[in-house]
Each structure stands twice: as structure tokens, then as C-alpha cells.
């Protein structure tokens, strides 16, 4: 059975992009794969944080993932499993500065003020490679934004194997969904939907109420043209494309089918149908997540048990990686 690893940063409440780009696929994959799903709290320190918010968001994200249907036995938080940090350090010493300099996510997140960002943000992709390879996972379901980091992880695995003269780390394959691999902001169709966007109106989150969802969709930015009947008509209309993409992904229909249904209409009735569709799927998730958050001790227990299982898989692999690089025990 193929081993699957994927993670999510507890930097806020998961949003529709996380749901369609990652979580929904995790729920499907866990049926016939050996899956590990991780709240990557160590990655969350790469941008400014407060301890109180991190604790709260880690539990909040756990509740959302469980409410979305993730199997509790497969879920844990990264910092509770030392294999991540141990292998992350080795990979810091395998990865090359030239490789990291090419990472577009660092450039996007650091922006113009890069001198002021943490070293952690820069080496984030090395830790992500360690997250996956500490389990010898070969399949990684992620959104499109992580494609470059997966390529880097394969470069690191290959260099480690070459330098140590072994075939130890496997090559990994990204499982990037064909639909909605990149959900865009509701306020700006050229920016991806993100937990760290200062505007709460830019994203639908997994604890929004039905009213919140309807309001955010009603307020979503659009243009003044009616919807086209064919995909070519979405050219140069990123906001319209984004809403159609979301509708298609949520309804498991093709873009062409959605456009043939709504083409020629204004945004008003389409937005109503989209809001209904989102509420139908996401409002029950939000209700269940709220319910789960009433028992924080239970959520902590889930993470502790998941970490135990994750340690049992990753410790022998990282022990062997350490032996290969020459560490004595
Ligand atoms: N907009 C998106 N569309 C599709 N997939 C997305 N993912 C994130 N945003 C979108 C996928 O969700 C998984 C978890 O992402 P993450 O939380 O670890 O980190 P991120 O990609 O940095 O997400 P955010 O929301 O932008 O977080 P912040 O603002 O904290 O940096 C990944 O598989 C990702 O591809």
C-alpha cells in the first residue's frame, strides 16, 4: 500500500482553498492508502506568531479536519514527533542555497522586506522535504502552490542518496487535484486564497456560519459582464473564473457543464446557487467542528495518539538516516 503524507499549517482556520486543494482529497485517499496527516506547527513559526494563537489554532484546525472526515488515528502535530526536526537538520546540510534561492513561495512571503524575515522561512522547504521523507512517503496530496517544494524534496532525496552511496530515500509524487488546485481570493482573483490575507472577506473558512458564507459570496468581487457560455470567455476575468472553478469543484462538474448551465446569466442568481452549494457541504463541517471544540482534552488525546503512531513509523527511518551520515549512538 502506498504511503501518503500531507500537512497543513495551523496558522488560522482552514479555508475553502485548503479544503478543495488538500483536505477533501485526504479524506478520499485515506480509504485505500497508508496516510499520515500532520498539523505542521513547526512551519507555523516561520511567520510572526503568538503562543496563545498557535495553541488555539492547532486545536481549531484539528477540529476542522476531524469534522471534515479525517480519520483521527492518522492525525498528529509535527513538533510532537522529533523525526521532523532531526531529519530537517540533515536536509539543511544537504540542500543547496542555490536551490532555495529559486523558491517562489519564499519570494512571495518575504516580499520586499526579506532581510527582516526569519531564517526558518528560508529553509522551510528543507523541513517540508523531511516531513515527507521521514516516513518514506511516496505520495503527497497538495495544492498547486506546493509543486516547486515537492521538486526540491526530490532533489534533496537524490543528493542524499548519491552522497551517501545508497538508495535510501524514495522519489515522491505530488497528487495535485485537477480541479481547484489553486482557489483564489474572493477579493482579488490574482491572489491565492490564504489564511494570512488580512481581509476576512477574501476567504471562506471552515467555521463560517451559513450566513457568513452567503454574505462573503454575495460580496465576492466580480465584473459587470454576464457569465460566458464557454471557457474561452473567462479569459482576462480571474474573479469570474475563480467562482466558476469553485462551483465546478464543489459540485463535481466540469467547468464546461457549469458554464452551459449559467452562461448568459448575471452573477446574482449564480452567486445564490454557489452559496447554497457551499452551505450544504460546509455548514455541517462547521457545526461539527464547533461541537468538537467543546472538548479540548479529547482533541489533545487524538493528537497524542496520532503522534505515537507517527513516531513508530518515522523513528527507525530517521535513526537509519543518522547512521548513514555518520552519527554515533
Ligand atoms: N488557495 C489554495 N487553493 C488550493 N490549495 C491550497 N492550499 C493552500 N492554499 C490553497 C493547500 O492547502 C494545504 C495546506 O496549506 P498550508 O496551510 O500548509 O499552507 P499554505 O499553502 O501557505 O496556505 P495558506 O492558507 O496560504 O497559509 P498561510 O497564509 O499561513 O501561508 C497545502 O496542500 C496547500 O497546497
Draw up the topology in text.
Elements lengths: L2 E6 L7 H14 L4 E6 L11 H18 L6 E3 L5 H10 L4 H5 L2 H7 L8 H15 L5 E3 L5 H18 L8 E3 L34 H10 L18 H14 L3 H8 L4 H26 L3 H30 L4
Parallel strand pairs: 1-2, 2-3, 4-5
Helix pairs in contact: 2-11, 3-6, 3-12, 6-7, 8-11, 9-10, 9-11
The chain binds adenosine-5'-tetraphosphate (AQP).
The site of adenosine-5'-tetraphosphate has 21 residues, from strand 1 and helix 1.
Which topology of the largest domain does CATH recognise?
Rossmann fold
Bound molecules: adenosine-5'-tetraphosphate
The CATH architecture of the largest domain can be named as: 3-Layer(aba) Sandwich
State the separation between the terminal residues, measured CA to CA: 32 Å
Total number of strands = 5
Strand coverage percent: 5-15%
Chain-averaged pLDDT: 95
CATH class of the largest domain: Alpha Beta
Main sheet record: 3 strands, parallel
Number of DSSP helical runs? 12
CATH H-level superfamily title of the largest domain: HUPs
Number of domains: 2
The shape, in one word, is globular
Give the uncertain stretches in residue-range form.
none
Lateral strand order in the biggest sheet:
1-2-3
Percentage of residues in helical conformation: 40-55%
How big is the Rg?
A: 21 Å
